[in-house]
Amino acid sequence: MANSGISKELDGLASGNPTEQTGPASYDADLIVIGGGPGGYTAAIRAAQLGQSVILVEKEAIGGVCLNWGCIPSKALIQAGKQYEKMCQASQVGIVTADIQIDMKQMQAWKNGIVDRLTQGVKQLLSANGVTVLSGEACFQSPHSLEITESNGQKLTRTAKHSIIATGSSPIALPHLPLDHQVVLGSREVLSLQHVPQSLAIVGAGVIGLEIATLYAKLGTQVTLIEQQDRLLPALDDDITRLLKKALKHQGIALHLSSSVQGCTVVSPDAGAQLTVADTAKNTGSAKGRNKSATTTINAEKVLVCVGRKPNTEALNLSAANLSSNAAGFIETNHWLQTATASIYAIGDVTGGPLLAHKASREGLIAAEQAAGKARTAKTCVMPAVIFSDPEIAFVGLSEKAAKAYGYAVKVGKFPFAANGRALTLPMSKDTAGKEHTGMVKLITDAKSNAILGAQCIGADVSEIISEITLAIEMSATADDLALTVHAHPTLSESWMEAAEAVENNAIHIFHAKK
Ligand code: FAD
Description:
Layout: E1 29-34, H1 38-49, E2 54-58, H2 64-68, H3 71-88, H4 104-128, E3 132-135, E4 137-142, E5 145-149, E6 155-165, E7 169-171, E8 184-185, H5 187-190, E9 199-203, H6 207-219, E10 222-226, H7 238-250, E11 254-256, E12 259-268, E13 272-279, H8 280-283, E14 295-300, E15 302-305, E16 309-311, E17 344-346, H9 357-371, E18 385-387, E19 392-397, H10 400-405, E20 410-416, H11 421-425, E21 439-446, E22 452-459, H12 466-474, H13 479-484, H14 494-502
Parallel strand pairs: 1-2, 1-6, 2-3, 6-17, 8-15, 9-10, 9-15, 10-11
Antiparallel strand pairs: 4-5, 5-6, 7-16, 12-13, 13-14, 18-19, 19-22, 20-21, 21-22
Helix pairs in contact: 1-9, 3-4, 3-6
């Protein structure tokens, strides 16, 4: 793929200096993959397609976090929540419904059916491609040898010419907020609740916190979001997060920014918990600003702790492979996903960067092809990301503020969904009067070259339109290229064409004052 005008993003990546290690004369397999999530299973399948003999070791469930406890289960429930909301609002479009109820057990069964179908599909693909799957926990004995402890305690040793570490990440625990898995929950449990809680306090308003907040708010839960930082999603531009904050308010979600949980008392499984929350803005202010009202109590039937994730490296015995993790615990790699030991690659969440399933699977392809001697590409420079909150948010490349910080002369083109015919037909977050449609797309361009540097968008179904700009950036497209491309009508993606025109104040469906 073409390198885009945002190659400065690559500057921070580790270049690495891998060391060659001599292994035994013959191996049990060409490649051992540790971890069967989207990174690991993708790597295993691609290596097998390229004629490699492959062993995949998974200690818990094929599909990893993504298929079993992350992307898929959360998106299934979010979709169900949207469907419920749509049915409740059906009278607005002239459909009369009555007695709409939530059967949470059935919703969970439906979600589990999707998870089963996908994980079974991956197992079949692994088998059809001739990948040997071992159930157990793997750790290094040497750079080319791994010990695998099966669930019955039995130990196996397997050697391989190359290995790929794809062990993913786990939630960070807060010492003063331990999970009891009944009232104080992690994301796995909150996605498996068998009833709709009356109230839910979410500690951490990152991607997972926001998605779960808007999901349960739709199902009727009183949701409180508690976030230590003074703003939501710092990677995004303010015009996007402003709309998000407004939409959260309209959904009745209480948002506490600059707030940190000091303590938690679980009253009982039915009565829930009591959180003591300190307003850090007030507490860190001047002596004058410190006052008693800086601490509040929040009662909730359930508490979700989602304050970030840490890499799974502890069980790997990395030192036996002459490896170590960095200060944050992640395994560093070069552009080819090769670690400091040349025969070992690392991919996905365990390497840090954006913790996203599509990043893990793309890295799986790169590492597998590299190990098989058939590399097509190195680490890509743009990684799209989507937040499946209501409204959805999607972004790729540089934000306006990041582009300016890199020294670009930035030109921006924006287009509101209120002026897009297709958007008006979709269920959207509306203001209290039920009038205003939330949503916009924003294109960030380099004023000198007209190249597209990045894009951010917010609104219904924007998850489906971000790939156009990802491709545009990969192909080094300009705003003109986008403006000159005919977009089908009526579609949300027409908004990109209008935003590209808006860079030069030429969009048709918004008024620009005469230059
Ligand atoms: P994982 O999926 O974590 O897989 C790692 C696997 O390795 C696990 O199965 C684990 O059991 C296994 N393992 C670990 N150690 C060992 C060992 N020593 N031996 C053997 N096996 C081992 N991302 C998105 O892109 N889109 C989304 O919408 C999205 N939603 C999410 C929602 C939630 C609630 C969560 C928690 C995450 C979400 N993510 C999403 C993130 C996404 O799930 C991860 O980025 C992705 O799963 C990472 O893939 P991976 O292959 O690196 O690791």
